């Protein structure tokens, strides 16, 4: 409780100090107090600052300190070197201290109309590269206040220019309240409309060699292809091409081209129009176009001065926001920093929970700990399978078994109708007896010719009798071995004819099974003999039986419009007693460990690979 109270007390104290510094900045009455308040606020908001200094141009063109931090006389030889380099080349200078490698000196120039007016100097310690970039960006924003002070000094003694500077600072403050480009543009147009007493203010930004309309006052949306929008862009292009402020009616002396300004005035039905180019460090940023109604006063020199002041102050901020809106250098970095603050900052528990969830999801997706398996429809069949066939053509008399029954070797499965055979047997037996008497009579009479003929006929009749008796002995269809009937159900075919050789039953021995997998052609390349898998028969209510892949054949078949390969596997485990040949189910073969993302996108990747291979040269 005491630690939390101390933290809360420190946070309230820091907030109170910052509020006091802002109040000092707002209540500054002269340049010295304004610079000191600004520097105190800047150093208080910046991490790692050990010293700060503001140099401004004084009388005679010499540069003198306008404010220093911390208070009191101090010597900064390194900052003096940085100041000389900054004032000499007019560029931002970041230079390390030879005596203290951890300390960096930063010099930020203050310029107006291409003339050096001063510099802001800071000595910072222990900042990383991203923190240094953030500091430079804050300086870029903050120096706008010093720019306003410079403009205020340049207009000293001119009450109208002082009012213009104050109004321009109000517009700048209104724009700086927003973080995104679109919000800042709309706030700029709305604030400029009030400051310039205008009917409408439009902002166009330079894109390539043209100016594109980006925002209009009092409207978050506008038609970009309307006649008014095209006329505004043409007027902005005219001002940017000539590089000067254009106004209708003409206020300043000169002979500018005002064709597009006149066209906009006639099309929009306004009383006055002015287009002010905006530049940042000599580079064009955009154009502000101000319009007044017909019943309003036309623009005068004071209005144009205020418009130029607003354009000069807001141009650096607009340029910076445009750079930040870029995808790589701006939006991604900004959103990334916002996300990092939400994840690692002291607040936003929901963001932290979502971040942890996203991290876990990435781990689940991309770490290869998921088991990759090849799935295939499978069927159970016996390793040995014997057939019980019809021994001769005839009719089915009875059926004692059907598919699925467990039978013993020699068990009667079905019986063929033997009534015709019994009649044929009796007739053949009588014929044999008759031929036997004839043969004996010929033998007794010593008639050799009759004896030979009767003997041949007797042997033929005896052969016919033996065939009939053979068929009678085989009218019972018996199981060739002990096992289970895989196929054959004659219970609904009693009385129907069968031909010799017709397969009536198929018997497979119990406990000697194999699994036949119908593997899709895109998966067969992953299979190798010896791989392990599990077979889930439909009839075992979700139970699985282990197996080992033994043979991968090159035989293909078309099943449901898909080419499949026959893969044979040997069953293992103690569930053979409840298995039956013909059972169908699903088999999965374990391959190796892969990531879930790889497994889930495998089909899509293979389809895309084949598609591009097919169509690309």
From TrEMBL:
<dbReference type="InterPro" id="IPR050465">
    <property type="entry name" value="UPF0194_transport"/>
</dbReference>
<dbReference type="GO" id="GO:0030313">
    <property type="term" value="C:cell envelope"/>
</dbReference>
<keyword id="KW-0175">Coiled coil</keyword>
<dbReference type="Pfam" id="PF01590">
    <property type="entry name" value="GAF"/>
</dbReference>
<feature type="domain" description="GAF">
    <location>
        <begin position="176"/>
        <end position="328"/>
    </location>
</feature>
<dbReference type="InterPro" id="IPR029016">
    <property type="entry name" value="GAF-like_dom_sf"/>
</dbReference>
<protein>
    <submittedName>
        <fullName>GAF domain-containing protein</fullName>
    </submittedName>
</protein>
<dbReference type="InterPro" id="IPR003018">
    <property type="entry name" value="GAF"/>
</dbReference>
